[in-house]
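hey
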């Protein structure tokens, strides 16, 4: 995380929320972080840092992970809600 991102509570909260949603989806499938990383084409350490809310995810990597988990990218950002489809429309 960049230094200025440490001072933004809403970004930190969002990073934790996204990481938590990734963890929930991964564990529902019975996958390890390594399995998700392999399917998504990422490093296991990246998945670990993401799930702990220690990094800000790029849109491209969010899409990679969502595709690996077979979920809508928006569901990882704001969970299951009506707003999720508008996020998906933006990044589709």
């Amino acid at each position: 995380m960049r230094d200025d991102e440490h001072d933004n509570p809403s970004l930190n909260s969002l990073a934790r929320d996204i990481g938590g949603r990734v963890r929930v989806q991964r564990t529902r499938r019975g996958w390890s972080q390594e399995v998700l990383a392999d399917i998504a084409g990422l490093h296991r350490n990246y998945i670990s840092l993401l799930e702990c809310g220690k990094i800000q995810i790029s849109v491209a990597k969010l899409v990679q992970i969502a595709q690996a988990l077979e979920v809508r990218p928006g569901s990882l950002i704001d969970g299951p809600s009506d707003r999720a489809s508008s996020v998906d429309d933006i990044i589709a």
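The radius of gyration is 13 Å. The first helix runs from residue 3 to 6.
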